[in-house]
Write a structure and sequence with these properties.
- With about 500 residues, this protein is an alpha+beta fold.
- The chain has helices spanning about 45-55, 60-70, 75-90, 95-110, 115-135, 140-155, 160-180, 180-200, 205-220, 225-245, 250-270, 275-290, 300-325, 365-370, 370-380, 415-425, 445, 475-489; strands at about 1-5, 10-15, 35-40, 45, 340, 355-360, 385-390, 395-400, 405-410, 435, 450, 455-460, 465-470.
- Strand 12 and strand 13 (about 465-470) form a beta hairpin.
- Helix 2 runs antiparallel to helix 3 and helix 9 (about 205-220) packs parallel to helix 11.
- It is globular and about 70 Å long.
Length: about 500
């Protein structure tokens, strides 16, 4: 399972804590709708036939079917919902068409006088997916405009859209950060958090909403505004803990506590995994000591899922701790199956150079987001002793010349995939070469790679001096500072 965590800027192998894609976008079924809908012009829409087209991946036919009905009944919430399902299903196979459909849906929802709770959720989800696609395409202004118009529509919708509004505020803040407008992001999140805090204290908002808002704030500003994030988290933690420690504590309070601590742990997985282990064990203790729910109840199943989740988190933290222990040790030699854009070389050959190993894959959006930094570093520092090596393996992709991108092809040969990598490298104007390790090899495990991109910086003596996981300006700035330091040693 591969998922992109936009907020954190990396792709994880395994279980992710956050994401922007809905269950529908992963091919899961949604609630059964009415079989036939009557359109305003007297025609009808057969929902069963539409779902059959989706199951058969007949996107063009499904699109024609839903668009004709929407043209007849443009304000039908159910028809817009079906159109959204189609957009989600086609995000990976036909991203441009999916983006165009989402843009149209967002316009339709934002222009409506009233939004139901379900339409509000779908509007927020569409805006999340579409604005992130725009941001990844370097269309910052357009991305922010989509998020701001969505938030305005959800704010006008009132109580039915309260939860969706909170999510939209968090989305806008993340987009402001990616657009390098941190003060705007901070203003949005402070306003959101203060509003929901007031609602919880007055009894109009649920504690879970305060937890979500607090977790979002900590995720975004836990490093830059650590004192404020700690204070806000402490307030909500004390509020929930007081309930759990008294007779008033209910299962939803335990779920809220889990959400709060999981968000805190997620922020620490790569920055301070030792502290993360301590907090995860506290969470585990709280879950294990909670009174057992009734057998075979939903609460019993949920509690079991939470306990399993914290075990998974502890496993990921153990990997991060192992990664920390690699710093200061000799970098292990890689086993190369092929080289792309470079001559065959070993790490032993590169003694006396500063080496940056960039673990990546062609399908990884956050990996591609690091390419501008890699290009700049090669141009500025390669003559001073820096060598950048992209570490990847066969992923089952070929090069689509017409659309200038890599596309899945499970049956592709190793030789043809190497040609794809050469075309991919040329398309992205990369100057450093790729080391292609054997598929299923042990090199990733040797360097505790659990999420990509992962950068491993090696000094002139062959010692590992730094490991960074994920993209983003913070990691890039810290890596560049370390590169400069090592080049001068």
């Amino acid at each position: 399972m591969r998922r992109i965590l936009v907020g954190f800027g990396l792709t994880l192998a395994g279980v992710s804590l956050h994401g922007v894609l809905s269950p529908e976008s992963r091919g899961q079924e949604v609630a059964s709708p009415p079989q036939v809908l009557k359109n305003a012009d007297g025609s009808s829409f057969d929902a069963i036939a539409f779902n059959d087209l989706l199951k058969q991946s007949k996107w063009e036919e499904a699109g024609k079917m839903i668009d004709e009905s929407i043209a007849a009944s443009p304000d039908s919430a159910r028809l817009l919902s079906y159109s959204f399902q189609l957009a989600l299903r086609t995000m990976r196979t036909a991203p441009e068409a999916a983006a165009q459909r989402m843009a149209s849906l967002i316009e339709s929802w934002c222009s409506q006088k009233e939004l139901s709770a379900s339409s509000a959720r779908e509007l927020q989800m569409a805006a999340s997916n579409y604005s992130m696609m725009l941001m990844q395409g370097a269309k910052k202004a357009e991305s922010l405009d989509v998020a701001q118009r969505t938030l305005k529509a959800l704010s006008a919708a009132g109580d039915s859209a309260r939860s969706s509004k909170r999510s939209a505020e968090s989305l806008l803040a993340r987009l402001f950060i990616q657009a390098e407008k941190p003060e705007d992001a901070l203003a949005v999140m402070r306003s959101s958090l203060d509003e929901v805090k007031k609602g919880v204290l007055s009894g109009t908002d649920e504690t879970s909403e305060l937890v979500s808002a607090t977790s979002a704030f900590s995720t975004l500003f836990g490093d830059s505004h650590k004192e404020e994030a700690t204070e806000r988290s402490k307030f909500v933690e004390e509020l929930i803990t007081s309930k759990l420690d008294s007779n008033s504590g209910k299962f939803p309070d335990l779920v809220a506590f889990n959400t709060l601590k999981s968000s805190e742990i997620a922020r620490l997985i790569y920055s301070d995994p030792v502290q993360g282990v301590e907090i995860a064990n506290q969470l585990k203790s709280r879950l294990d000591s909670f009174p057992a729910p009734k057998p075979d109840s939903n609460e019993e199943k949920q509690l079991g899922a939470l306990q399993k989740s914290v075990e998974t988190i502890l496993s990921r933290l153990a990997t991060s701790v192992a990664r920390l222990k690699l710093v200061g040790t000799s970098a292990p030699e890689y086993e190369a199956e092929s080289f792309v854009g470079m001559d065959a070389v070993t790490l032993a050959d590169l003694k006396g150079k500063v080496v940056l190993l960039d673990f990546w894959a062609v399908w990884c959006g956050p990996c591609i987001a690091t390419f501008p930094h890699l290009r700049d570093w090669h141009e500025v520092y390669s003559d001073k002793g820096l060598v950048i090596l992209g570490i990847t393996s066969d992923q089952g992709y070929k090069w689509d010349e017409a659309n200038q991108r890599a596309v899945p092809d499970k049956g592709i040969s190793h030789e043809d995939e190497m040609e794809m990598l050469a075309s991919f490298r040329k398309h992205h104007n990369l100057k450093h070469g790729f080391v292609v390790t054997p598929k299923g090899g042990k090199y990733n495990k040797a360097l505790a790679v659990s999420g990509i991109p992962q950068a491993v910086l090696i000094d002139k003596q062959g010692k590992i001096r730094s490991i960074k996981v994920g993209s983003g300006e913070k990691n890039a700035n810290e890596l560049e500072a370390e590169i400069k330091k090592l080049l001068q040693e």
